[in-house]
Amino acid sequence: MVTYPNMMELFESLGIDMEPSDMSLSVSLNEGKGCEWGSRNGLSSLFAQKPNLFNPYFWQMLREILKFKNDVISYLELLENNPDIYRNETLGQFIKSKGYSELFQKAYLVPVCGSIWSCPTERVMEFSAFSILSFCRNHHLLQLFGRPQWMTVRWRSQHYVNKVREELKSRGCQIRTGCEVHSILSDAEGCTVLCGNDSQELYQGCIMAVHAPDALRLLGNQATYDESAVLGAFQYVYSDIYLHRDKNLMPKNPAAWSAWNFLGSTDKNVSLTYWLNVLQYKIMRTVLELPPTTGDVKIWEWECLLKLVSKNLGETSLPFLVTLNPDYTPQHTLLKWRTGHPVPSVAATKASLELDRIQGKRGIWFCGAYLGYGFHEDGLKAGMIAANGLLGKSCNILSNPKHMVPSLMETGARLFVTRFLSYFISTGCVM
């Protein structure tokens, strides 16, 4: 199944190469003194802490993971088959109503959601239950093992950005970078864009492909009541990000080390470490999809560090890591920057459904990943809708096929067959 059909169609049209991605996850609570497990190497990672083999609470969590899949499927089917039911339940309310254990929440649910949306623990439970659980189902996150092979861009996001730029130039489009926009004004004549060099340019229409708070800032006092209400509903979390080589920001037990490593405690915000030696260029897609929002980090500086990392990935004495929101400044830090990510709250879900109140009014169109789950596919779909709306054309948005969640038996069979065939395939990968 293609989870991002529009993105894949774009990549195919541009000739973008893809490669398998490692999406394994580990959880390490209280600096490894609490629960610690991983998913990269099957049971050896899952039971990285050998005492968990005899820990009834850990086994209860595993049973609840299976129960969670069934509860989510039933919940989503109920809401999708009854559109009149109000979808304002939070994730916390859903979990409480089902009676899940504290360990399930702290050692599984919060790490999974917090890792994807870079949100602190208390914000995760404020997520829209329908939105988040739909995402988990659509992305096959309802099971620990036997997930489909994820793919990623072979030469990171900068590669397809360059491809898009080349395509636009071939069509006669003018692309201007490094031109900071201070404000946007709208009147009967059109949209006036005021730039940092005091220049003013008049256009028939305008598409604001920026974060919702930035769109409001650019509109300033001219923002309408509806624009303030809709765009103001979208909230963001901001993360301090470090490229470093401090292995203390990984799980204490090396058997648990995975591509994504959730570090948390019961009383602090969470942090997340990406293991570059496993992810290599793949992680660059993640950290470059949103340019630094503060600081003096430039793309060329990041490219230089990228070359440094790529030449030394085989050196294992100190791993190359990227950590979001560490409790302290990591040792051997190479670079620091800051960026933001939209929060999939109940208010955001409601606001995205009310976009028609402001879309195209005053000749201004809005788009961004915040109108969906906050990822590439969401940004692309929103951009396609805005661009075609500005041109007065209909928009053909591809949708996902019916979501098929494999049973426990199907998942086990798939895992067994995949591992069996892996012994006989020396070139390529088992999809």
Structural key phrases:
single chain, 431 residues, alpha+beta, FAD/NAD(P)-binding domain, seven-stranded mixed β-sheet, three-stranded antiparallel β-sheet, 16 helices, 40% helix, 16% strand, globular, transferase, Amino_oxidase
Written description of the protein model:
This protein is an alpha+beta fold and 431 residues long. It folds into 2 domains: 18-153 and 236-342; 176-235 and 343-391, 3-Layer(bba) Sandwich (FAD/NAD(P)-binding domain), CATH 3.50.50. The protein is 40% helix and 16% strand. It is built from 16 helices and 14 strands. The chain has helices at residues 5-14, 43-46, 56-81, 91-98, 102-117, 121-124, 129-138, 156-170, 212-219, 225-231, 276-279, 281-288, 299-311, 346-353, 376-391, 408-422; strands at 18-20, 25-29, 36-38, 151-153, 181-187, 190-195, 200-203, 206-208, 236-244, 260-264, 271-275, 321-324, 335-342, 364-366. It has a 7-stranded mixed sheet. A 3-stranded antiparallel sheet has the order 5-6-7. It has a two-stranded antiparallel sheet with strand order 1-4. Helix 3 packs across helix 5 (102-117). The chain is globular, with a radius of gyration of 23 Å. 32% of the residues are buried. Mean pLDDT is 85; it is low at 281-291 and 293-297. Pfam families: Amino_oxidase (PF01593). Residues 4-389 form the Amine oxidase domain. It comes from Gossypium australe. Keywords: Methyltransferase, Transferase.
